[in-house]
Here is the input.
Amino acid sequence: MGKVVVAAINGHALGGGLELAESCMLRVAARHATLGHPEVRIGAVAGFGGTTRLPRLIGKGRAAELLLTGKLVTAEEAVQLGLITKVVETEALISETENLIHEILSQAPIAVRMTWEAIHRGMNLTLEESALLGADYFGLVASTEDFLVGTNAFLEKTPPFFRGR
Here is the structure.
């Protein structure tokens, strides 16, 4: 989408539901949530991104275990695996997810966009190429007004006011 997308998982995120959540940049889950790819249990494959995204999120070995056994995990286990960002109480799910979004939105917009791009583009590059891409993006944002505002605010120990320039 070219944007930071955050999933709020409340209940079961299984099969295609988890694949949808895996396509998001960040995932917040209610404590009672259950996640997994049970497709093999019915003779199917997690064919809509699960076999691609899950290994990138939690590593090949851990993903293989979940995908090959159909094992379901709790929200607590999922956060330990790195599958979700945080676990919250059910009644706080939407507000905590919105807080995370607002925290991202309070940052310098150009820096957020460039960081998002570096993460996504860097996944398809070698480590060296990805590091160079990150350095290139740093050079680009270093010329922005927001970079100057942020640096001055840091030095002055005041909150920055970013304008996306």
User: Anything to note?
Assistant: The chain has a mean pLDDT of 91. The longest strand covers residues 26-30.
